[in-house]
Amino acid sequence: MIEFETTGILAGDTDRVTEVAVVHLSAEGRVQGQWSTLVNPGPLPGAHRFRRVTTSQHAPVFAQIAVDLLALLDGRVVVAHHAGFQLRFLIAELIRAGHPVPRDGGSVLCTMQLARDFHPGATRSREDCLAKFGLSRRKTPASVATNALATADLLAAYIGSNEDRSFWDRYLGDALEEPWSRVGREEAVSAPRGWVPRRERDVDSPRETHPFLRRIAHQMHSYAGEAEHLDYLAFLDRCLIEGYLAAGGALQALAQQLNISRFTCESIHHDYFVELSAIAARSGSLDEHQIGELWAVGELLDLPASLIRAALDAPRPAGVPQLLAG
Q: What positions does the domain Exonuclease occupy (predicted)?
């Protein structure tokens, strides 16, 4: 399992990794080891005000941990919840540090994508996927380390509920054929050198959040269509959950990267907003601020005002909040 904390959501652009956690799981689903470290992102380009990092001054930069991180990944299937997001940051940081990456991103499994097979009715959130198995997040403060362990718990549940080993064995075989590291497996590290795990007193500076949008985004249903479309939808979820929705460039770039046409993207935005509005309406009477937040989401999705008004059954209030940071 791999999990990153980042300064934002734009991999390879203005944002950097600030923390990484890795958990090794056996083929049977047992935890074999876990590692984590803070990462000093260095100077951030532009007027960066999304998530200011105040805890990583004493931590190594990504280039200093890259070799050990690659050794931890070598011969392993890279697993994450919303793996597309995590993999984009991993590849961007490795390229920035001058390291090659496996062809096609190596052997990767996404527990969010797998949920469509194991629990078709689950939402896209990791917590809901765990709940379908009667599991919950481990009772420790939320961090990349606990997130990685939660993903490990979810993957172990998938493995335990699927007697067909051929599916898992195929990914394990691919991982051995597409190594992440040039370090021989006999040299692979058991204790990464110079890693600086987060301490209890290490905290990031607070950032603006939108609890209403966060709450309803966590309730968005899964998607039965193409995997690339689900990756894009999960990115939209993350934008709302993190209190950030990048207009134009970032969404367009991701759509191009995932080979999603403009017409399809417009359709995805339309359906996403209609579902989001319906979930919001079921939560009870909306106040003007909540309506304003939904209007802002609709506008940043580049939806026509007539569609937004029809979905919300409310006019655009004065002073629609600005969700775009950067």
A: 2-164
**How far is Cα 93 from Cα 19, in angstroms, rounded to an integer?**
12
Amino acid at 234: A
Element (H, E) at 36: strand 31-38
pLDDT in tens, 220-268: 988 888 999 999 999 999 888 887 755 557 788 889 999 999 999 999 9
Domain interval for residue 259? 211-312
Does one domain contain both 69 and 16?
yes
Distances (CA, A) of 173 to 28, 83, 90: 15, 19, 21
Which two tokens mark 282? 């079921």
- Chain segment 51-69, per-residue pLDDT in tens: 545 566 689 999 999 999 9
Band (326; pLDDT cuts 50, 70, 90): very low
Give yes or no for a contact between 218 and 123, defined as CB atoms under 8 angstroms apart.
yes
In whole angstroms, how far apart are CA 310 and each of 11, 285, 314?
34, 16, 7
For residue 68, the domain's CATH number is 3.30.420.10
DSSP assignments along 63-98, one per residue: HHHHHHHHHHHTTS-EEETTHHHHHHHHHHHHHHTT
Q: Which amino acid is at 322?
A: Q
